[in-house]
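Issue: copy button drops trailing tokens. Both records pasted manually instead:
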Amino acid sequence: MPRRDETGPTAVAAAVTRIRPLTGDDLSDVVRIDAFHTGEAKPEYWNRMLRGFLGPSAGRGHVGLAAELDGNVAGFVLGDVRAFEFGSEPCGWILEIGVDPELARGGIASALLDEASRQLRATGISTIRTMVTRNNVPVLTFFRTNGFAAGPYVQLELRDDKEDTWPSP
């Protein structure tokens, strides 16, 4: 695979030979790419995720795509259509997206996001969402550059940080 610094971002995006459905054979590449971004290899997690998206139980609205560069997986995306409580209509969700670190900022993630969005919209939904940690500026910038903006919901959580913070019965 050419390195980003040897080819330039435009050349990398142009060299993506195709975006295709993910397959079970892509598991090791997905684990490798994710491990770089998260700092931890999670083959069991990814095996479960891919089975859910690729297996016979995967329903309409599940999107699992790989970008290939010179016959190798350069990136992947998983998304689906779901509705939650609190009056949220069914919408698309980008659950996972990752690109080989050697090829970052080459347009691969944007190409994957474009195709995933097209497939999700083909189910009839008009909104696509994702969640990103507040301090992950590169990922926030990526989604904002690709047209995402703050939505109508605010995610809140109650944590048990091993302190006696829970109310007594």
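Record 2 (pasted manually too):
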Amino acid sequence: MRIAAPPPPASVTETVPPPTFSVLIAAYQVADCIADALTSVLEQTEAAHEIVVCDDGSTDGLEEALAPFRNRIVLLRQENRGEASAKNAAARAASGEFVVILDADDAYLPGRLAALRRLAADRPDLDILTTDAYLEAGGRAVRRVYGPAWPFAVDDQRRAILERNFIFGHAAVRRRLLLAAGGFDESIRRTTDWECWIRLLLDGAGAGAVLEPLARYRVRETSLSADRAQMLEGSLQTMRKALAHPHLDAEGRATALRTIDRLERELAVVRLREALRTGTAEARRRAAAIAFDRSSALSTRVKAGFAALAPRIAGRLLNRRQDRAWIGAGGTKVDRA
């Protein structure tokens, strides 16, 4: 089992008994796919301590989809308050030492919980655990989460988490630690996991990963991560909250500000593309602003300059490109059938 984690402290000299893991599923309008997620947990080589599902005000027949599993899950119901609220409710109801997230439209591979339990036993100093995973689109694996272009950060995790969310989303976290920190921030509709990991790492938590693909993360055009503009807006909200963290030092603040600057430039490009595709009047203004922004890459400025001069042509080219492919989570390009 290949592990990525910071070196253990000197006090960690032997393994401890494996902790218990409660699987949390926040469910909203997922009647069509939650059965696959639940089955993947029930088919683990080492059983979960429990599965806690929080129905976040679904109106799509979720109760019928859950009926075959009803005696094998803990089911909570609440009015629609968002993903973070549903995860928090499930975490409060759970009783495992770790809570591990599973999105309702994704799935674990059979050995995932066993690998996480082994990592937790071998490295009791770690508070957040995850594994590698396959990114899937259209029923096929597109790539893995971790690789040379997107490594799991081992060195200086407190700085690294301010640059990017290197912790894959199906993470396990110590339940008491999560609840003591206030859980997931319910004011953030997207990137709530990233905001939580920032707080925990800045407070001194450590993270580790099993570098084997032990989950299936389904990239859907209709998923939250497919809405690039809103994901970037959530990321900016997350980073601005990080600036107020009491344990953020001067170096961390500088890192966060650089990340905010990068995200703002990415968001400007995404908004320009949308304006060009829809033919709105503000497309030329947005394009000119990027073209004259010396902090942007030269290639981006050149393309923006062309768009400012010929917005209709640029819009037609973008629409043709979108007809051929779309971009999902992690910048994954998916060709349309």
